[in-house]
Design goal:
Among the domains are: about 160 residues, P-loop containing nucleotide triphosphate hydrolases (Rossmann fold, 3-Layer(aba) Sandwich); about 130 residues; about 100 residues, no CATH class. The protein has 26 helices and 18 strands.
Length: about 725
């Protein structure tokens, strides 16, 4: 059964327009030009290219759509004179009929089983589809996380950035690593960045720091108490002062030879330095003392020069690979510098106070630790340079590692989905096997029906039914007769010539509809198997007189609309056909075929209104209470300013003609000569309303005279001037 029909991008269906139903009987009302013919023609030939954007939901190979519309009439009557024969089951061959009926019952039972299995299959498919969507959304986080922002790892998702299903299938196909990957996403980003842009260059390895003055740190002279000549008469005083360097430093402020009785002392500024004192002081600083002091100064110079040769930290910081070991490097570097700086100060203090023993710190271990950090940095540099040499293969390795991390991180999601899918697949395979067995049984029963129909098929019953239908409708001057093996021919009583073209439009409509009824009841071919028939009837009364409209309505009710039956206290509806769609422009006919009892209508029918405005055609559910007569329908149209101008104007004219010419019998010219209808603003409305031909609405487009507000206001003023404002207000609501 059809559950939904979507029309899109064809004729007046400018955008997706949906008719959705859960009922077997569907009645559609729409004025001419709203799109009924497009609807029925689509169901008549849904595979035509112009319907490529349209869709029917709910059909399968067990269904057959039979459509009655102008295309059906043209294809079956206007070109060939001979009608296609309609085969029906013979009532005389009871044995064959019994076998056919039994086979049909078996098919119904099997179809029920098949439908039950298909529902279960659909449920499973829906469940796994839902799980797939949730899993796909979860996996799509990978795309969201790594194709925005810094986009460093975006290259890993090439081919998977636009299709969530493709991405899910790819991740699902990855093998989970045996253990958690060592590298992290941040490390991979760093690796990629080192190969891209300004970073895509090799770096020089860093030189290890050498310190050639380390041997000085172990010199024994630093632990020696360096003093002057103890035999000097001033040695005891200098030792007592405890600072021979201070005394020695003062000598440079004295002349090389004392010529006067006494020189001024550089410290106390008194004339206390005699020749003898000067000689005794100089004797104290003998050659041995001078040699030791000179050695200390030499050590100081070499050690200081060695310190100045140590590279600055900035020489290491410029290398991008330094950053990883920054803290460790700074700690070791500062520690080493502190040791040598402290040693330098110690040497300086030793020179200042030679008599005091000192011990210098050993900088060897500290320098080794610092150079070890430099070696680690060099290791990264070498690794980086190697990657530059094989950039393409490294990027492939990074991409592989990226997906290993993703597969590890999303394992719970993938494993759960894979497990569910496997279980569903097993269930689906079992159900499909059951359905195959059922279809095999249906095929077997269908063959029985086809075989038995060979003995029971004839066209006599169809001919009789059509002719009886003509007589029942009061048409007796022509009838249907057999032609060749399986064709019909129309003949009049007085002539057997080709007379179809001499029929009136109403007669053609009647004969074609009776033919269609037999087509629905029977088969086109003797070997054709039964199918679930969906009936579409498009305006079967468009050319009929009022009495025929009633009779055709009765035919449709009896043949297509189903019956409400009560059996053993249970109420059920019985239908000859799987589903029925009836379209009409006539409110009278629409009312005639609509079930008037509310509860029964609610159980069996769905009503729809088909409208068209500048946005295109649209379906709307319709309540029974909305069914109005033609006069009311015209008012409904003029309230919608999106309707075509010619249609609005025509509806206004029809209302005025009906109300003023038929009901009130008043001369309109008297009203149009009064204020405000005689104003220039309402002249276009006046000219249009006074035209006799209903085809002149096209002139509204030609002269662009139509203004909805002007026409609507003039329409209202006419009723007000005539004294029927209350009627206008009631109807315009």
């Amino acid at each position: 059964m059809i559950s939904k029909i979507t029309l899109n991008n064809v004729a007046s269906y400018k955008k997706p327009t949906v008719l959705e139903t859960d009922k077997k009987i569907n009645l559609i009302y729409g004025l001419n030009g709203t799109g009924k013919s497009v609807f029925s023609n689509y169901l008549y030939k849904p595979t035509e290219d112009r319907y490529k954007d349209c869709r029917i939901d709910g059909l399968d190979d067990s269904h057959e759509i039979l459509v009655y519309n102008q295309t059906f009439i043209h294809e079956n009557f206007f070109e060939p004179e001979n009608l296609k024969g309609i085969f029906t089951l013979s009532k005389t061959n009871k044995d064959a009929k019994m076998k056919i009926e039994n086979a049909q019952k078996e098919i119904v039972k099997f179809e029920t089983d098949k439908e039950s299995n298909n529902k279960e299959l659909q449920t499973i498919n829906n469940e796994i589809a839902s799980k797939q969507e949730k899993t796909k959304d979860k996996i799509w986080e990978i795309k969201t996380n790594y194709t925005g922002g810094d986009r460093v790892l975006e290259f890993c998702l090439e081919g998977y950035k636009k299709d969530g299903s493709k991405l899910l299938a790819f991740v699902e196909g990855l093998i989970k690593p045996d253990k958690k990957p060592i590298k992290t996403i941040e490390i991979l980003k760093e690796d990629v960045q080192s190969l891209a842009g300004d970073n895509a260059q090799k770096y020089d390895v860093l030189n290890l720091i050498s310190f050639h003055a380390q041997s000085i740190e172990s010199e024994s002279l630093f632990s020696k108490q360096i003093v002057g000549n103890e035999n000097s008469t001033v040695s005891e005083l200098i030792v007592k002062l405890g600072n021979s360097d201070w005394v020695k430093d003062g000598l440079k402020y004295l002349p090389n030879e004392i010529k006067n009785e006494a020189e001024v002392c550089p410290f106390c500024q008194e004339s206390t330095i005699t020749k003898q004192l000067f000689r005794n002081i100089k004797d104290y600083f003998d050659a041995s003392y001078e040699a030791d002091i000179n050695s200390l100064k030499n050590f100081l110079k070499k050690y200081s020069e060695a310190i100045h040769s140590i590279p600055e930290k900035s020489m290491f910081e410029t290398n991008p690979k330094y950053e990883k070991y920054r803290k460790d490097f700074e700690l070791k570097y500062n520690n080493f510098i502190k040791i040598v700086d402290d040693n330098l100060k110690q040497i300086e203090s030793k020179i200042m106070s030679p008599s005091i023993a000192i011990t210098l710190k050993d900088s060897v271990g500290s320098l080794e630790e610092l150079n070890k950090v430099i070696e680690d940095i060099n290791s990264l540099i070498s690794e980086h340079n190697e990657k530059i040499d094989r950039k393409e293969s490294v990027l492939k390795e990074i991409k592989t590692m990226f997906w290993e991390i993703m597969r590890w991180d999303y394992d719970q999601t993938i494993s759960s989905y894979t497990s569910d899918k496997t279980q569903s697949k097993n269930k689906i395979e079992a159900i499909n096997k059951t359905i195959e067995d059922i279809e095999s049984k249906i095929e077997k029963q269908t063959k029985i029906i086809v075989e038995q129909q060979k003995n029971t098929v004839n066209i006599e019953e169809a001919i009789t039914n059509i002719n009886n239908g003509l007589i029942d409708l009061g048409i007796e001057d022509f009838k249907i007769v057999p032609h060749l093996d399986n064709l019909y021919k129309i003949v009049r009583k007085q002539s057997n010539d080709r007379i179809f073209n001499s029929l009136s439009e109403g007669e053609k409509m009647i004969i074609s509809f009776l033919y269609f009824i037999e087509l629905c009841k029977g088969k086109k071919d003797a070997t054709e198997a039964d199918k679930k028939k969906i009936i579409v009837i498009d305006d079967p009364i468009s050319s009929l007189s009022h009495i025929y409209v009633f009779n055709v309505g009765r035919l449709i009710k009896n043949e297509y609309l189903g019956k409400r039956e009560t059996k053993n206290g249970a109420v059920n509806w019985s239908y000859k056909y799987e589903q029925v769609f009836i379209l009409t422009h006539s409110l009278y006919f629409f009312y005639e075929i609509t079930e008037i009892k509310h509860e029964e209508r609610k159980e069996s029918q769905r009503l729809f209104r088909l409208t068209k405005n500048e946005d295109g055609s649209s379906f709307f559910p319709m309540n029974y209470e909305e069914i109005q007569n033609d006069y009311q329908a015209y008012w409904y149209i003029i309230k919608d300013e999106k309707q075509p101008p010619a249609l609005i104007a025509n509806c206004m004219r029809n209302i005025i003609e009906y109300f003023f010419n038929f009901v009130e019998k008043k001369d309109l010219n008297n009203f149009f000569s009064q204020e405000p209808l005689n104003s220039t603003r309402f002249q276009a409305f006046y000219r249009y309303i006074n035209r006799e031909s209903h085809t002149l609405g096209q002139n509204i487009y030609d002269f662009k005279e139509f203004n909805y507000n002007d026409f609507k206001d003039a329409f209202m003023e006419l009723f007000k001037i005539a004294g029927y404002e209350e009627h206008y207000r009631k109807m315009i609501k």
